[in-house]
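Please fill in the sequence for the structure shown.

STRUCTURE ENCODING:
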């Protein structure tokens, strides 16, 4: 009997020891898991800070990691010669007559832009990065990464690229009539665009941006919308250009992309500037500034005007809220705009320029409203509805100052006031 009691005690003692051992092991694992989590969490958070490396501005695979893709192979001839692929440096030299200065059609922080003709007689625009400079390398890779993936009537197409001998050369389709800005003001203004043409150009650019924002799972944010980055072809079809600062949009479960501020002064979303949180609504803000450029025929920033007039967006909103937007319309449009079309256009631009992104429309909404403004323009029944017939606008009562925009004062302002943005000035 005594032996049975002793055996029972021994069994209970062993069971208790076993449970204590198991609890110790489980407890140790839990403590280890917590310790590892605490150690890794700060590292993960640091990785999410708004810091951009050379290739981070892309959001896509860097060019040098595309080794086996069609991008990295020398192209065979196609309908565009070198559609989205490498072009030999010798072919680029031949197309531009060895980079003849007489063929320069533009320039910016990235380098010169030349007009060229490939050996299959296709006209192209050749953007050559400054030789030996690596400053534009991230933008170079971004343009290739973005434009090799997309094709749209209202986006400039990439024909090919060249990186031989440390060159950074991008070859685009040639857009005959150049930047929208040159048709609104500048040193060599083209024949003035009428109101219908301006509306159709704005609608085309809006379609291109809408495609960027919605045509992919994450979308693409342009980040540098301005009148110099909207080009016009021979049929006055608008094409959005210059994707060097583009970023992939936020993931499905995120509201924004945390990133350093880049863009152009006068067009920069103030919320993005303050918070360094990028969304597609930042493009909407910039596009709103372009809409007022189109309406008023002046730069986004002109430091030579009076203090109240320097910033186009603020100045135009002030007149719009007073119900006197017609006082600042481009004199070239006098007698051309129907009041209801002007009203809808002004309301659309104002909504784009809302202080907070959540209050701005999507590019799809902007597109719909611009198409409606065009419909109102076309459906007006009599010429008496034109703006000048309402006696609210005429060359005499317009408050807009006539200026000679031989220089791009918005670029001057950028260098003087917002030097932190200058690394990304006009590519």
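FILLED IN BY: designer on duty
SEQUENCE:
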């Amino acid at each position: 009997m005594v032996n049975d009691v002793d055996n029972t005690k021994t069994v209970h003692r062993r069971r208790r020891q076993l449970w204590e051992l198991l609890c110790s092991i489980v407890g140790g694992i839990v403590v280890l898991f917590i310790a590892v989590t605490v150690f890794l969490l700060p590292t993960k958070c640091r990785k999410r800070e708004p810091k951009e490396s050379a290739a981070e501005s892309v959001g896509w695979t860097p060019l040098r990691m595309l080794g086996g893709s069609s991008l990295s192979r020398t192209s065979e001839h196609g309908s565009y010669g070198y559609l989205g692929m490498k072009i030999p440096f010798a072919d680029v030299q031949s197309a531009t007559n060895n980079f003849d200065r007489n063929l320069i059609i533009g320039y910016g922080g990235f380098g010169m832009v030349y007009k060229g003709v490939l050996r299959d007689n296709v006209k192209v625009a050749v953007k050559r990065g400054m030789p030996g400079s690596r400053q534009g390398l991230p933008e170079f890779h971004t343009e290739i990464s973005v434009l090799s993936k997309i094709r749209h009537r209202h986006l400039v197409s990439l024909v090919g690229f060249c990186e031989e001998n440390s060159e950074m050369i991008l070859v685009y389709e040639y857009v005959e009539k150049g930047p929208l800005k040159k048709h609104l003001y500048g040193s060599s203004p083209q024949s003035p665009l009428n109101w219908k043409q301006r509306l159709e150009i704005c609608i085309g650019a809006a379609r291109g941006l809408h495609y960027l924002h919605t045509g992919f799972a994450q979308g693409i944010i342009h980040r540098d919308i301005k009148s110099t980055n909207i080009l016009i072809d021979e049929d006055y079809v608008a094409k959005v250009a210059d994707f060097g600062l583009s970023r992939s949009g936020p993931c499905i479960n995120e509201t924004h992309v945390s990133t350093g501020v880049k863009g152009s002064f006068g067009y920069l979303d103030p919320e993005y500037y303050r918070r360094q949180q990028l969304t597609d609504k930042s493009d909407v803000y910039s596009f709103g500034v372009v809409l007022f450029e189109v309406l008023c025929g002046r730069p986004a920033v002109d430091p030579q005007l009076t203090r109240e007039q320097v910033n186009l967006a603020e100045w135009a909103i002030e007149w719009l809220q007073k119900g006197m937007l017609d006082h600042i319309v481009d004199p070239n449009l006098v007698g051309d705009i129907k009041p209801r079309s002007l009203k809808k256009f002004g309301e659309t631009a104002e909504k784009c320029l809302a202080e907070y992104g959540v209050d701005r429309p999507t590019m799809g909404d902007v597109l719909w409203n611009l198409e409606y403004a065009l419909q109102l323009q076309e459906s007006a029944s009599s010429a008496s509805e034109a703006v000048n017939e309402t006696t609210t606008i005429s060359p005499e009562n317009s408050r807009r100052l006539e200026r000679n925009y031989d220089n791009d004062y918005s670029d001057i302002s950028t260098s003087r006031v917002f030097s932190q943005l200058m690394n990304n000035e006009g590519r």
